[in-house]
Amino acid sequence: MKYLMFLLPIALLLSILGIIYTVGNPLFLDVEKTEEVIPVDKERLENDVRFLTELQPARNYLNIQSLNKAADYVFEELSKLDCRVERQKFVVQGNEYQNVIAHFGPENAPKIVIGGHYDVCGDQPGADDNASAVAGVLELARLFHKQKNDLKYHYEFVAYTLEEPPFFRTDQMGSAVHAQSLKDENADVALMISLEMIGYFSEEEGSQDYPVGFLKWFYPTKGNFVAIIGKLGQGGIVRKMKKMMKAACGIPVASINAPISLQGIDFSDHQNYWKHNYKAVMIGDTAFMRNKNYHEKSDAIETLNFEKMSELLKGVYWAVLNW
Known about the structure:
Blueprint: H1 2-24, H2 42-53, H3 64-79, E1 84-92, E2 95-104, E3 111-117, H4 127-145, E4 154-160, H5 174-184, E5 189-196, E6 226-231, H6 235-246, E7 253-258, H7 271-274, E8 280-284, H8 306-321
Parallel strand pairs: 3-4, 3-5, 5-8, 6-7
Antiparallel strand pairs: 1-2, 2-4, 6-8
């Protein structure tokens, strides 16, 4: 009995450490930083966000003209690059909507998909949610334009529509349409990355919330980091993404693997790729766990930090380029 009493605390400690390792994907060794200069253009990011946030009326599902203007802008920006650009059109409730897709790399190679949605919820500018991610998708595509001859994957950069309510979690989401199209063609998808709200950061103590209180024991209390979100069973890709992002990212990188029942784990377009058993992660600033402008008219461009947003994109670029 004495030995049992001695072993129980050890077993409990090992269990806790196992949970931390599984959920948090820790890297115990320092990651060697790359010396390569990654020319993310902050001014161009800001210009992209400004165009989208100034569209009137707001680019929600009711204002199809504004959605089309957003899609046209993305299409025109991508068409300036040496890549194949297409509109993926589909009909919902009698209205036509569209995803915009840019293709880089060998057509028959395994695919890496990087996407973000351009629609908003209600009547608000949606600077962080999700103009920031659309600007990120455009900037990453511009960077890959320079690498087009050396790519081993086929990269699809996608601007989705209809991520927001009332279509969230339905087959009418633009990302659901895209994911289903990949499934229908039996595509080999190596990875999908959903960029979701990538522009809001805070150095204020206590600015970061979590869906359950005990996570504060293991994660930062300041909302100054980028988060990589994955589900249980895909810890390997989250760990790999974290390690590679840290090599090029000038801000802290945190990660979590958790059940999709945990609030926020599947709150973006990546959920539709999980449905087809594709490996997918969400990368962002943790949305309403940090940014209290979420789905409010105060979600304006003035609240974004383009310096830190640029660092986040450097990390994503380096990771997917060297995947």
